[in-house]
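Recap from last week: sequence in, structure out.
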Amino acid sequence: MSAGPLWTSRAMAAAMRAAVRGSLPEAITGLSIDSRTVAPGEAYFAIKGDVHDGHAFVEAALKAGAVLAVVETAQAASFAADAPLLVVDDVLAGLVELAHAARARLAGQVIAVTGSVGKTSTKEALLQVLGAQGKTHASIASFNNHWGVPLSLARCPADARFAIAEVGMNHADEIRPLVRMVRPHVAIITTVEPVHLEFFADLEAIADAKAEIFEGLEPDGAVVLNRDNAQFARLQARAGKLGISRIVSFGADKASDARLIDLSLHPTCSAVHADILGREVTYKLGLPGRHMAMNSLAVLAASALVGADLARAALSLSQIEPAAGRGVRRTLGVSGGEAILIDESYNANPASMAAALNVLGQAPVGPRGRRIAMLGDMLELGPRGPALHRGLIEAIRANRIDLVYCCGPLMRNLWDALSTGKRGGYAESAAALEAQAVVAIRAGDAIMVKGSLGSKMKTIVNALEKRFPGKAALDDAAV
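Predicted structure tokens:
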């Protein structure tokens, strides 16, 4: 907990150049943009979203315990004269100003993370590692866009020793303003892969957009780059042109500064032997998959760069658990025994899909069990989408996947490429595939569900969990 409030209303008003209406409290304990989850003592920001205008929920937020609301000048007159308000021309712009003020008062070390794959898991690993060594603040969930980054930064306590910002994009020029707000001491690019190709000409253009993260780096800061990635040289050159002298690489390549020496993969974890900036460490990583092990090298390198104890950081990696929709496992109680469900439903692209299939290939199965992949469309891939979906056939073969269920018009391309023996079922939507998925499962199976968020594969996960409650769910119900 912070020694004092997150903000005072006076400091908030000054940072946002806001007009004050009503009687405001001295202390603000938190910030919210959702009237449904706002907590007593927090300030509510009436953000205008794509679907809803937050001004419509100001009264609800105040009734729920918000001690003030930040509203725009054009709508301020619609609220009660005594309502506690900070009035600004634009609420999102006001939040950005508050984020800048939060960064200005912060004396701790800041890390920014971007990349085509692994942003959130890397951020969560950094939170686990650094949080064990000092007060650490990180963005929640995947708050990595034009409102998520300023909200997360504005929520950072002034006395945090470490702060971690996840920065995302799907167009050029989106990272640049965000990273100039964050001003990291260390910037990580996990990898550059064919993601959001609908909005980019090629991989080089994606790399250039990711390289925008260099532009906000603090003087004498460091960048951490994936040497095994084909775009490494391009990123390295861009960093050099910007005058960045501390370029730290990670990977299996022998020239890497954070180098993988040996890796032993297991169904639910990995054992890693690595050289991190000249120091050898051996550690257990509480996540399966080679891709997770590679990103753990970046985590340890960044941790060392911001002054954390490397040995303690490596030890903390054993405590990491997958985030929701990113590899969480659940035991399903099916007729005659159990099955394993791997929930990868949060999002998908060709690289993360191949990685998830590799994890499924490592999953144990029973005597009659099968490895089953239930896959939804990977979106925003542009003209290359059909070929990239069809190309998943190689990862399916390499990882001994027994059955594949395909969902969506793009996944039809993979379905058509599958041999008859590997075809489980096909449907145009997740809702339509649900019935097939439920009847497919038997004891000993390992099932992995994955797709882009827009393909709504969480529907399949929910259906399986409802139909086959695991032991934990049954015990909870009994209690």
